[in-house]
Amino acid sequence: MIGSVLRIWPIATNTLREAIRNKLLYALLFFGVLVIGASVLIASLSYVEGERIIQDIGLAAMQLFSVGIAIFVGIGLIHGEVERRTVYTILSKSITRSEFLLGKYLGLLLTVWLQLVLMAVAFAGVSAAAGASLSVTHVVAVLGIAMELAVVVAVATLFSTFTTPMLAAFFALGVYCIGHLTRDLNALGGQADDPVVRGLAQGIYRVLPDLDSFNFSLYAVHGWALAPNDVLWPMLYAVGYVLALLFMATYIFRVRDLK
Amino acid sequence: MKRGGQEGAMRELANERIKVEGLVKDFRPGLGLRSRRVLNEVSFSVREGEIYGFVGPNGAGKTTTLKILMGLIRPTAGQATILGHPVSESRFRQEVGFLPENPYFYSFLTAREILDFYARLSGISAADRKPKIAALLRDVGLEHAADARLKTFSKGMLQRVGIAQALIHDPSVVFLDEPMSGLDPIGRKEIRDIILKLRADGRTVFMNTHILTDVEMICDRVAIIVKGHIRYEGPIADLLRGDDMDSDVVLTRLPSDLGIRLQERYGSRVKGMGERIEVRVPDKDVNSLLTASLGAGAEVVSVTRNRHSLEHAFLSAVREGTASYPNEQKEMEKNP
After folding, report:
1. What single-letter DSSP state applies at residue B326?
2. A98 → chain B, closest CA residue
3. B317 or A228, greater pLDDT
4. What is the pLDDT of residues A63-107, one digit of tens each?
5. How confident is the model over A4-57, as pLDDT tens digits?
6. What is the pLDDT along chain B (336 residues), one digit of tens a residue?
7. What is the pTM of this model?
8. Which residue of B has its CA nearest to A99?
9. With contacts defined as CB-CB under 8 Å, which chain A residues touch B121?
10. Distance, CA of A228 to chain centre
């Protein structure tokens, strides 16, 4: 176990070092912070609830740009290593493919969490400057985005083990979009008369990630109260879903030929 | 005698560091397409402390074999073991070093940082890493560039980094894929010296290469692979010693009648006339020629045994291989 951690950690830190050299990351981070800052201008156009508009836009920008970074930096995660053949020398050491993949996942997750922290600092600064209140619920909302990112990075990792970056980006974006609609699909399907449609909607809801379960933005913006279980269950769901995705990814990566 | 022979065979078996038996690999180019056989019943073994050359033309299956040995791809059939462990395992790789062809490393790291990365992957403690890396950088001649980013390195320098990372964990078996490719003569000589040092240190070296002169110079045994079939496997000396070998005999103070007789018998194989001649004769004729010449009062200046060049042996194996399996791919596609 300790041996595994000692092998996974260099891969993770190296992935982080590599990712923070990616210009795309800085471009997305820049625009994320820009939108958070611009929320003040947009809010100034409204006569009412300016603070809420600032925080709504700020949290949405953090979520969207973080997901963008997770997908567009994550899609080449494994594919790039195989294409550039850096993986050959790494796997010739006594590291398993599963450990390598977990290291890559962890490295990318650290990268997106790091930029999330930077955007959260910008968000807090803009909110404070605009006189909008900040509470623990805002921290929970950022934690929710962090959980969603853990799932999205795992999705990107899974697709990057067996397909090209372009297809992986397409699939991961698809999963992200559907992941925000699964609740609505399930609710709509539940009202259908046809049992096949009902079963299908429920099947999609069960298999695809329910990304809306990590969205605490409304609680933060409107100051609604959150019970511990409201956070705990989504957190457990995220951990379970990530483990399932990484299990599939390691299986695919273990059995594939690295040509 | 029989017991001695058995003991010898047992000893040889115990000394085997790499063993490949009946390796087969089929590749399917794409979904719905028929598979193509790139390795066909490949078998060979590599003994402790030897430099083993794996030689073949482009597309013969050399890199595929090496990738199977490194666990990067799986064989369709057959077995391969390193130090007695199936190649699908990963833990024994602590004993194995690997230099891929045209190695690529994280270009944003320096030579010292990339070696530190591989040392950490190999489980080398923090205290041991620093002196180990410094010693390796010195051994491969990169001391001066230790803190330069790899993106500024030439191909030869990257090759040295590749060799250093392959040796960072002190492996007993080292695999090198085209270690001399793209290097200038000085670079080739330096890499050759490093490989010879590995053998002197008691390590086993398996080397894929196109450069036959290097194989001839440093390898103990060799396998020639053509179209996925092993055409020859064994000591390089046996390969170069064919049945139809010749020797060059230089004679002086030769009586004229003997010179004429030799001219009649060997024709254009006789060079020079008069007192001193050189004649190329089949090995089986050397003794009788020497006896006749000495008996006739001639003096023997030299007898030089001609060796086949590896290039000659290699080209013969490729020609025979190409003739033996001309339609293999077509047959494979008909009967996937």
Report:
1. T
2. B90
3. A228
4. 999 999 888 888 877 888 888 889 999 999 989 999 999 999 999
5. 888 899 999 999 998 888 888 888 889 989 998 888 888 888 777 778 888 889
6. 445 556 655 555 568 899 999 999 998 877 677 788 999 999 999 999 999 999 988 888 999 999 999 999 999 999 999 999 999 887 788 899 999 988 889 989 999 999 999 999 998 998 999 999 999 999 888 999 999 999 999 888 999 999 999 999 999 999 999 998 778 888 888 889 999 999 999 999 999 987 888 888 899 999 999 989 998 888 887 877 665 678 889 988 888 788 888 888 888 788 876 678 888 888 888 888 899 888 888 889 998 877 667 777 788 777 877 777 665 544 444 443
7. 0.82
8. B121
9. 7, 10-11, 90, 93-95
10. 22
Residue A134 within a domain: yes
Domain total for chain A?
A: 1
Residue A29 lies in a domain: yes
**Domain extent for A37:** 2-180+215-255
Question: B333: buried, middle or exposed (CB in 10 Å: 19+, 13-18, 0-12)?
Answer: middle
**In a 3-state reduction of DSSP, which class is residue B9?**
helix
ipTM of the modeled complex: 0.85
Distance from CA of A33 to the nearest CA of B (A): 27
Q: Are A89 and B105 an interchain contact pair (Cβ–Cβ within 8 Å)?
A: yes
The edge-to-edge listing of strands for the beta sheet with B299-305 is B270-271, B277-282, B246-252, B299-305
Q: Is A221 a domain residue?
A: yes
Helix axis angle for B155-167 and B111-121, nearest 10°, is 30
pLDDT digits (tens, 9 = 90+) for B66-78: 999 999 999 999 9
Contacts of B118 in chain A (CB under 8 A): 89-90, 93
* Measured distance CA(B226)–CA(B39) in Å, rounded: 9
Chain A CB within 8 Å of residue B321 CB: no
Residues in B touching A82 (Cβ below 8 Å)? none
> Would an 8 Å CB–CB cutoff place B271 in contact with chain A?
no
Instruction: Considering only the beta carbons, identify the residue of A84, A89, A259 that sits closest to B165.
Output: A89
Q: Which among B317, B83, B103, B323 has a CA at the least distance from the CA of B215?
A: B317
The predicted pLDDT at position B12 comes to 59
B98 touching A (Cβ < 8 Å):
yes
| Domain assignment of residue A95, yes or no | yes
Print the SS3 string covering chain B: CHHHHHHHHHHHHHCEEEEEEEEEEEECCCCCCCCEEEEEEEEEEEECCCEEEEECCCCCCHHHHHHHHCCCCCCCEEEEEECCEECCCCHHHHHEEEECCCCCCCCCCEHHHHHHHHHHHCCCCHHHHHHHHHHHHHHCCCHHHCCCEHHHCCHHHHHHHHHHHHHCCCCCEEEEECCCCCCCHHHHHHHHHHHHHHHHCCCEEEEEECCHHHHHHHCCEEEEEECCEEEEEEEHHHHHCCCCCEEEEEEECCCHHHHHHHHHHHHHHEECCCCCEEEEEEHHHHHHHHHHHHHCCCEEEEEEECCCCHHHHHHHHHHHHHHHCCCHHHHHHHCC
Give the gap in angstroms from C-alpha B114 to the nearest C-alpha of chain A.
10
